[in-house]
Amino acid sequence: MPLVRHPLLSPAPGTQRELVSLHYGQPGGQKAYIQASLHADELPGMLVAHHLRRQLDALDAAGQITGEIILVPMANPIGLSQFVLHGHQGRFELTTGENFNRHYPDQIEAVAQAVEPHLTADAAANVALLRRALKDAVLASPVDTELQSLRRTLMGLSCDADIVLDLHCDAQALMHLYTETPCWPACEPLARFLRSRVALLAQDSGDSPFDEACSQVWWKWAARFGQRFPIPQACLSVTVELRGAADVTHELAEADARHIIDFLRWRGLIAGDKPALPDAVGDARPLAGSMPIKSPTAGVLTFLKDVGAEVKAGEVLAHVIDPITAQVTELTSPVDGLFFARDFVRFATAGMRIAKVAGREALRTGKLLGA
């Protein structure tokens, strides 16, 4: 199993960070790319990657890996080192304030113009051509900051993959997924294997997060070329929310890693008997129907409902208590839906998002992701 070190642009003399990728199998067939903890303070994915590495090592030794699998066990060395007053700051880069999971560069139009004279009626040949051109464009893109070099490195490893899994977590949450609507048919089996309670679907949610930067090139190229050239949705890219930030246990991580291996075997990247498709334990809903619950006032936050509850519009989910006036503010669900995520902070500030309920109707517009 080759281990490759990718130096990032040095931010200061005497300072050098690197990204490490583990490579299994051989190029030429299907390719899967899996990365953990792009938000560096979200640690369940790092432990899942540890168990994936053990399982992939054994499969590799047995000669069972028939595709190409790249595992990045820690996708954000910048954020991993950011501590302020003993608090880990792994979501935003401290220099720019930018979210590590936003603002991935767009090579769609440049690649389309470069390859258009060479596209044909052969869909598979078109996919191969576009993948080569996209990777060349990504690797040739200029960078002038350490953060930009991290984004370029991650995209260079992943942009030509058939399957991209970006392992994250919420604060306190059920297992759930984010993917683009055109990816849902290919994602639905993954949701079954991972026992996901809900998959949240959008088509371009805004600010170019990593998973969408990998998948949306295909539906955008298909729209651009229309009926002239067949362009399939050649990348399934999914943000996997591995429950909550404190769900860092060997039992959960080993099972999650095994379920990912089962999916890869089901997809044909690993030899052996194809596993049976598990029964679905959840469904897909529009990301525009995932409603944030905000606190209009500050105070001590206490929840009346646990994640996993099916709630009705108007049902009280939490109280915010002003310790000076003793005023109790009720926070209610705006829709019927699944109460799938909540914050672990127990003092709410005015305007703070404290929870999310996944409804079935698309009600929001504009940028659909949080900061």
UniProtKB/TrEMBL annotation:
* Ranges for domain Succinylglutamate desuccinylase/Aspartoacylase catalytic: 29-112
Single Gene Ontology MF annotation: metal ion binding
Q: Name one Pfam family in it.
A: AstE_AspA_cat
Alphabetized, the UniProt keywords read: Hydrolase, Metal-binding, Zinc
Q: SUPFAM superfamilies recorded for this chain?
A: Zn-dependent exopeptidases
Task: Tell whether Hydrolase is among the UniProt keywords.
Answer: yes
Q: Which domain of life, per UniProt?
A: Bacteria
Q: Which cofactor does it need?
A: Zn(2+)
User: Which PANTHER family does the record match to this protein?
Assistant: BLL3975 PROTEIN (PTHR37326)
**Name the UniProt record assigns to this protein:** Succinylglutamate desuccinylase
Organism per entry:
Roseateles puraquae
